[in-house]
Write a structure and sequence with these properties.
The protein is of the alpha+beta class. The longest helix has 13 residues, at 543-555. 50% of the residues are buried.
Length: 753
Amino acid sequence: MRNRTVLKLFGVVGALLLPLGAAVATAPGAYGAAAVPIRVNSGGAAVTDGAGVQWSADKAYTSGDWGYQTSYGTNTTGSPIAGTDDDALYQSYNTFNGWSGYRFDLPNGTYQVTLKMVEDWANAAGQRKFDVRAEGANALTAFDIFATCGRLTACDKSFPVTVTDGALNVQFNMNGGANYATVSAISVTGQTGGDTPPTVPQNLRSTGATTTSVSLQWDASTDDVGVTGYEVYRGSTLVTTVTGTGHTDTGLTPGTEYIYTVRARDTAGQRSGPSGELKVTTEDEGGEDTEAPSVPGNLRAGTVTADSAELTWDASTDNVKVTGYEVYRGSTLVATVTGTGHTDTGLSPTTQYTYTVKARDAAGNRSGASNELKVTTKERGTGGNKLLGYFTNWGVYGRNYHVKNIVTSGSASKLTHINYAFGNVQGGRCTIGDGFADYEKAYTADQSVDGVADTWDQPLRGNFNQLRKLKKAHPNIKILYSFGGWTWSGGFGQAAANPAAFAESCYNLVEDPRWADVFDGIDIDWEYPNACGLTCDTSGPAAFKNLMSALRTKFGSGNLVTAAITADGTSGGKIDAADYGGAAQYLDWYNVMTYDFFGAWAAQGPTAPHSPLTGYPGMPIAGFDSDTAIQKLKGKGVPASKLLLGIGFYGRGWTGVTQSAPGGTATGAAPGTYEAGNEDYKVLKTKCPATGTIAGTAYAHCGNQWWSYDTPATIGGKMGYSKNQGLGGAFFWELSGDTANGELISAMKTGLG
């Protein structure tokens, strides 16, 4: 194993005679000689990050100041760093061992220390682990950057430290694996200063535009200490700083497009990243353009539930440009949109509403009202309120999503069930999917659900132990161990050859004494029985039913047994390939995967929503929609109460698209954070806000990209459908795709009750 370090010489030959890892002894520095905040680019030169914060060049310790002590080397990587725009801050680093590290001579008091780290050497968990202690107390134990954040991914850890002797020492020591502890940057701030930039302002929007002004609003940011204001940018120009979440920009030119972004600032002077761009065109003065757009045509209703109505209409035309549409409920303006669709929410059951739509152009001319549309909302259904979400074991790496995030997002109080994904299926047996993430990974106090750090000798760590803590704090949640998935379904064919042996292996794994109290049952995600997914299965139409029968026999009535199944309701499609009706008697419910109907695997399009609730004219494949699947499963004898409707917390998208409405051509998959053609909702809501709705879901056209995804409004409609159809509830894939405050889960909970 090559150790990529270069020894730093300290200017005295004696330093080379120290035992390996020995720290240089120095007298306490003068109190107050160094002042916070101190921010150091370890192993590198001075740099200013994207939030405008300055980081000092690294240096060796001198008494009364700050610096590193006995560094074992420095190194750099030229690779891009995921999870940050400040690559330069992570690409250089110092290495330490033997309880060497940094010393800061500071007045006594409490400080916040933040370490910024990146792993560019290890390519698997366990290859580099180290301890960190501050003022003699452990801050991180057996910390593994790769296991926590992944390779070449920004990895930040913060902890408070109290100084009582005029010197703050942060020290490092190897604790497993090889190589040395690595630190890319270190900061020390005051106990009231904070060191985490504010969150990015969300949902930047225009609430009105005149010939010379644009009114802006945005959602508030959060900060570890406090947000002090917002910087409003017109293009690259800072036009104002405000303390609230709105501003009206004046002195503009009529008929001109402007681009706005907003950044938040905190008490330490740190800036958030910029909000999503908002393009707004001021109205023309009207001296030349007095021609109104044509009247929007064919206003019609799509999906109507007890509390929502989906509206669509045909586009208007204008001699210059149509800039938007005003949607009226009676005489009340309820929304202004740029696309040709809107879902009106917050309605009352069994109530008639009247809608009209008007078009607007850049000069502020309005069309006449569209045809009047009367819509009567439905009676609230009696469906169930199961709300199940998938938690992925690989999410603890690059996504940095942990069980604790379920709590901090407010989602734990709303969920009824969690599917833990995934266990593998190998050799006809259930096997562990990722032992390190599942039960070995050590959690520090700040990462842990209950604020208690794992110890080296406790019998169970990892996600399983965190889920145990989650259930203790939230006994409303039941957890199922899910096996298979798209990648690991190839083993089910062999399992189907001996269902009893498969069931026995699964029971022994789920009910392992180390974690038997964590799981309340098993979920099978076989993609797909007697059909093709990543691999093709030829085990026959009875195989799925036989496997479910064996699992129920082994797990008994005291455990949950469920399955995630196809939503292909086409004639002769995947629902027809297996006996889902016959197998239903053995299962508590089915998670019907009513998403991924369309996507950029059809690289040239046509563009289509990946999760339509119903069919619509021009849909590329008839029967590729949620309602068709639900009705077909009911027709095969599956009780409605055993069906859960699926929601994707992500979008699918294309690039090279010029047409705003569905059905356009494309040149390939749109870029995504983790996968081309796929992006989390939490990113898309600001990166490419929805511009229209169709078939009960949303779509967005921004630049040359076209995305489809569900929003809180369309989820409200889908939950109404679930209730009206008498379904058992709904589920989603997967937790890390939601916003930090769980807005999609909240919409599901509100709709299901």
